[in-house]
Write a sequence for this structure.
């Protein structure tokens, strides 16, 4: 019974941290709110792996996972950036962009649950990565102009519903014998996370997450250019043949 | 194309209002935030019916609906009551009960999506009704003690994951010929909702929603008593036979 419920306990932990993040940012602690989202990412990375390792995957678990993700990586990061940066904007712009992020996240999750993707790849930026970038980026609010943050939020939202391919690390599983190490690693990570300065920690984590988000974008732009060059050389060939 | 997307547009409208509700309560307007949840309930009641009437039901639409519901009727109402009533409580109590509500809501939605229920009935209080009761109840904060609100939030959360049967009005469909009347009704309802005093409006809507939530509970208690009486009379019969 506990074995069967273990993955769902991690998923519920993820959702719980999403709500705590919303409460923390309401109480004026955006850096700690961002840390909660990051710990939620960790739990989200664990639940599916634990389920596969214990062979207790279920449709219920998958549904619960999506519902937790849309809160912790959709609503919470959007609310963090709203409070930190978009409050002062005109309500129309601030509200619409704040809502756009979880809307695109929900569209991404709904699509992910119904289509069978390419093995080893995600189609569109996964919502945990997008939410991670958004909430850590919010902490640079003093260094980045609000309009740039607004545009970045729009780009992140659109990347989620795009067809850009992202590498999928889900196949990096946990050996069954090592399954009981997972809770210990999670606890150690949480202890470290809570002892470091939340602001520094979140800002550090921003870097790899941003690289991941940009990686897919760059690869897609490369493909686009390659296709165009190929098209151009084909056009040149066709013209030469005609001559 | 538009016909196919129409139900999803209502669903996205529901999610959008959920986010607007969170922003409004953050900006100190709990009554209008509650009105947003109520309008979202209206949109939620419409999307499935429109999909059925136009025969464009889809797995994607169902997933998107759950993701919107957990935000508009799980997170938004919980955040409203947190801001209005639970802020002053000890963080442990306030945070846990605030998170309990969307957690139970997500469990309810995940269960609903994977099990086939009894026709004509919902098993457990549906999350839109629970969220509607919670956010309108929050407006009576001056009249109800915070501890009572805390207990009521716990009861509403548990009713969602309970096996209490609730009547399902989903079968009350819209005739296909009348489908284009729906957006007009929605717009009229929104105009009325926005013109009435948000506080009065939400408090009025609290009453039928509470009756619905209590109805299932009462019916369940009745069944429990009937079963007990039956058991007792059977016990008496058995004793009499033995004598």
């Amino acid at each position: 019974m506990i074995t069967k419920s273990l993955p769902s306990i991690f998923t519920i932990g993820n959702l719980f941290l999403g709500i705590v993040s919303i409460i923390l940012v309401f109480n004026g602690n955006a850096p700690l709110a961002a840390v909660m989202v990051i710990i939620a990412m960790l739990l989200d990375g664990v639940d599916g792996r634990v389920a596969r390792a214990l062979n207790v995957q279920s449709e219920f678990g998958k549904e619960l996972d999506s519902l937790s993700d849309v809160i912790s990586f959709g609503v919470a990061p959007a609310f963090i950036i709203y409070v930190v940066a978009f409050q002062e904007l005109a309500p129309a712009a601030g509200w619409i962009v704040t809502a756009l992020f979880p809307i695109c996240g929900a569209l991404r999750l709904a699509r992910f649950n119904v289509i069978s993707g390419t093995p080893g790849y995600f189609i569109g930026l996964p919502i945990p990565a997008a939410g991670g970038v958004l909430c850590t980026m919010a902490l640079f609010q003093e260094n980045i102009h609000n309009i740039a943050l607004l545009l970045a939020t729009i780009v992140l939202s659109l990347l989620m519903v795009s067809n850009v391919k992202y590498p999928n690390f889900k196949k990096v599983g946990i050996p069954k014998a090592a399954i009981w190490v997972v809770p210990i690693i999670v606890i150690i990570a949480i202890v470290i996370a809570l002892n470091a300065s939340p602001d520094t920690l979140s800002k550090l984590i921003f870097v790899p997450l941003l690289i991941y988000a940009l990686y897919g974008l760059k690869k897609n732009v490369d493909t686009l250019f390659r296709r165009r060059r190929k098209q151009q050389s084909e056009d040149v060939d066709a013209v030469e043949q005609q001559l």
About this structure: Strands of chain A lie at 121-123, 165-167. The first strand of chain A starts at residue 121 and ends at 123.
